[in-house]
Automatic annotation (TrEMBL):
Keyword Transferase tagged: yes
Full protein name: Cysteine-rich receptor-like protein kinase
SUPFAM superfamilies: Protein kinase-like (PK-like)
Sequence segments annotated as region (Disordered): 132-154
Length: 162
């Protein structure tokens, strides 16, 4: 679910693009977005994909069943498209441009470099955004002796067929 919908309740075409990016990364990696909550590797698929992209090891995301039969260029293009789709709202591509890139057989269409995903938990940007949303400053938090609580109350619904 797109962060702008979770935080502000705003839904748009760009929210669908965010979801598409998550799906692309899930298909490439063979893992659901919440898979990494069960491991110590990363907090979620997006932060793991972004970290590997930054380290230049994005091919490590590839699902083991796809490793023997893949085009490195196609995999890198899909990872890059996935990361472009999960950026901040204003930086996300249109679906028309994503389709054009996916349909192109040549690599002559230059893809922009992705920026960090719109939501990476436990970053200072995310913490500041939430503090502004709830009106809590850093000094207010340091003066209180309360137990630190997570404000990432997100539930995951899994639909099962009958």
């Amino acid at each position: 679910m797109a962060p702008e919908y979770l935080i502000h309740g705003q839904f748009s075409v760009k929210s669908d693009i965010y979801s598409f990016g998550v799906l692309v990364l899930e298909i490439i990696s063979g893992h659901k977005n919440n898979y990494f909550h069960q491991t110590e590797q990363a907090l979620d698929l997006l932060s793991n994909a972004w970290r590997k992209w930054e380290e230049g090891t994005a091919l490590d995301l590839l699902d083991s069943t796809l490793r023997d039969n893949h085009s490195t260029n196609e995999v890198m293009k899909c990872v890059q498209i996935g990361l472009l789709c999960v950026q901040e709202v204003a930086r996300r591509p249109t679906m028309a441009s994503v389709v054009q890139i996916l349909n192109s057989y040549s690599f002559s269409i230059p893809l922009p470099s992705p920026s960090a995903p719109a939501y990476i938990p436990n970053t200072s940007m995310e913490s500041n955004m939430v503090r502004e949303e709830y009106g809590t400053s850093t000094t207010d938090r340091s003066q209180s002796n309360k137990t630190e609580q997570s404000i990432n109350d997100v539930s995951i619904t899994q639909l099962l067929p009958r």
